[in-house]
Amino acid sequence: MARVNTADERRFDTPKGSRRPRFRRGERDKDRFGRFTEWVARAMGTPGFLLGLSVFAISWMAWNTFAPEHLRFDSIAIGFTALTLVLSLQASYAAPLILLAQNRQDDRDRVQIEQDRQRAERNLADTEYLAREVVALRLAVKDLASKDFIRSELRAVLEELDRKDEEDAANAAPRG
């Protein structure tokens, strides 16, 4: 019986005989939809979108006002009802998409705030450690001999050596 090599059996990161989906559909679709909502929110906030929507509404009203009667599809007599419905439908989809995009931004901001808080805690801990080290260094330096102290001790040693040399010279002179 011939053995069939499937894609899963050729993969080394998948246990033999297991079937693994090629991608996680839910997570990928969720992210794709989230990016789409952000794109919609960004696009609706541009001057181009507002200009395009204005041109669309003006064209709609102009067509239904000045076109021949048999070509009109929305009556000016009843206040452009179809245009109102189209704009309401657009607004009813735009609002939730914008809110979804804002929620994604809030999530990103929340993560950024948490990272900033952790970074601030690390900086505070580092600063406290450095402050303790500086205090320890100050205490250690305080116990060290100062330059003036070392000079005075060297002078005292030199004076004592000079005095011993004079005494040795004085003791050696009468014998001769």
UniProtKB/TrEMBL annotation:
Keyword Transmembrane annotated: yes
Transmembrane segments: 39-63, 75-100
Keyword Membrane: yes
Protein name per its UniProtKB record: DUF1003 domain-containing protein
Coiled-coil region(s): 103-167
This protein's UniProt keywords: Coiled coil, Membrane, Transmembrane, Transmembrane helix
Basic and acidic residues: compositionally biased ranges: 1-16
Highest taxon, organism lineage: Bacteria
Positions of region (Disordered): 1-25
InterPro entries: DUF1003
